[in-house]
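Incident log, entry 3
Record: Iron-sulfur cluster assembly accessory protein (108 residues)
Problem: checksum mismatch between cached and fresh output.
Input:
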Amino acid sequence: MTLPPRVTDRAFARLAEIAEMTGEQKPLRVGVSGGGCSGFQYDIRLDDPAGDDLVLEKDGFKVVVDPVSLPFLTNAVIDFTDELIGARFVIENPNASSSCGCGTSFSI
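Fresh output:
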Protein backbone atom coordinates (compact mmCIF):
# COMPACT_ATOMS: atom_id res chain seq x y z
CA MET A 1 0.00 0.00 0.00
CA THR A 2 1.36 3.40 -0.99
CA LEU A 3 1.21 5.97 1.79
CA PRO A 4 2.49 9.53 1.95
CA PRO A 5 5.35 10.26 4.32
CA ARG A 6 4.53 10.55 8.02
CA VAL A 7 5.89 13.20 10.38
CA THR A 8 6.57 12.33 14.01
CA ASP A 9 5.37 14.38 16.97
CA ARG A 10 9.04 14.98 17.82
CA ALA A 11 9.61 16.63 14.40
CA PHE A 12 6.56 18.86 14.79
CA ALA A 13 7.71 19.77 18.32
CA ARG A 14 11.09 20.84 16.92
CA LEU A 15 9.33 23.04 14.34
CA ALA A 16 7.46 24.68 17.22
CA GLU A 17 10.78 25.29 19.03
CA ILE A 18 12.30 26.81 15.90
CA ALA A 19 9.28 29.10 15.47
CA GLU A 20 9.57 30.21 19.09
CA MET A 21 13.30 30.93 18.75
CA THR A 22 13.05 32.79 15.44
CA GLY A 23 9.65 34.42 15.85
CA GLU A 24 8.74 33.07 12.41
CA GLN A 25 6.68 29.98 11.61
CA LYS A 26 7.90 28.56 8.29
CA PRO A 27 7.15 25.08 6.96
CA LEU A 28 9.85 22.44 6.83
CA ARG A 29 10.48 21.42 3.22
CA VAL A 30 11.65 17.85 2.64
CA GLY A 31 12.81 17.11 -0.88
CA VAL A 32 14.97 14.71 -2.84
CA SER A 33 17.50 15.65 -5.50
CA GLY A 34 20.17 13.86 -7.50
CA GLY A 35 23.64 13.82 -6.00
CA GLY A 36 25.24 12.89 -2.74
CA CYS A 37 27.56 9.95 -2.23
CA SER A 38 24.78 7.38 -2.75
CA GLY A 39 22.93 8.78 -5.80
CA PHE A 40 20.15 10.85 -4.22
CA GLN A 41 20.25 13.32 -1.38
CA TYR A 42 17.69 14.82 0.96
CA ASP A 43 17.08 18.56 0.89
CA ILE A 44 15.69 19.63 4.26
CA ARG A 45 15.14 23.33 4.92
CA LEU A 46 12.63 25.91 6.05
CA ASP A 47 10.73 27.16 3.02
CA ASP A 48 7.35 28.48 1.92
CA PRO A 49 4.95 25.96 0.37
CA ALA A 50 4.22 25.91 -3.35
CA GLY A 51 0.76 25.37 -4.80
CA ASP A 52 1.29 21.72 -5.72
CA ASP A 53 3.12 20.59 -2.55
CA LEU A 54 1.80 17.89 -0.27
CA VAL A 55 1.23 19.60 3.09
CA LEU A 56 1.43 17.57 6.30
CA GLU A 57 0.20 19.63 9.24
CA LYS A 58 -0.24 19.42 12.99
CA ASP A 59 -1.23 22.27 15.33
CA GLY A 60 -0.53 24.82 12.59
CA PHE A 61 3.02 23.56 11.91
CA LYS A 62 3.65 22.26 8.39
CA VAL A 63 5.97 19.91 6.54
CA VAL A 64 5.80 20.20 2.75
CA VAL A 65 6.94 17.79 0.03
CA ASP A 66 7.08 18.65 -3.66
CA PRO A 67 5.40 16.29 -6.17
CA VAL A 68 8.71 15.22 -7.76
CA SER A 69 10.14 14.12 -4.39
CA LEU A 70 6.95 12.45 -3.17
CA PRO A 71 7.48 9.05 -4.91
CA PHE A 72 10.93 8.77 -3.27
CA LEU A 73 9.39 9.42 0.15
CA THR A 74 6.43 7.03 -0.01
CA ASN A 75 5.91 5.41 3.41
CA ALA A 76 8.91 7.33 4.86
CA VAL A 77 9.01 8.76 8.38
CA ILE A 78 10.27 12.31 8.94
CA ASP A 79 11.67 12.58 12.46
CA PHE A 80 13.94 14.75 14.60
CA THR A 81 16.84 13.38 16.60
CA ASP A 82 19.03 15.02 19.21
CA GLU A 83 22.08 12.84 19.82
CA LEU A 84 25.63 13.29 20.99
CA ILE A 85 26.77 13.77 17.37
CA GLY A 86 24.21 16.52 16.79
CA ALA A 87 20.57 17.43 16.41
CA ARG A 88 18.88 17.15 13.02
CA PHE A 89 15.82 16.13 11.07
CA VAL A 90 16.17 12.56 9.78
CA ILE A 91 14.34 10.47 7.21
CA GLU A 92 13.57 6.80 7.79
CA ASN A 93 13.01 5.75 4.19
CA PRO A 94 11.87 2.19 3.40
CA ASN A 95 12.47 2.88 -0.32
CA ALA A 96 16.23 3.29 0.14
CA SER A 97 18.27 0.19 -0.64
CA SER A 98 21.35 1.80 0.93
CA SER A 99 22.39 5.09 2.44
CA CYS A 100 25.57 6.89 3.39
CA GLY A 101 26.89 6.98 6.92
CA CYS A 102 25.60 10.48 7.62
CA GLY A 103 22.07 9.64 6.43
CA THR A 104 21.75 12.54 4.00
CA SER A 105 22.05 10.53 0.78
CA PHE A 106 20.62 7.23 -0.38
CA SER A 107 20.13 4.94 -3.35
CA ILE A 108 17.05 3.09 -4.57
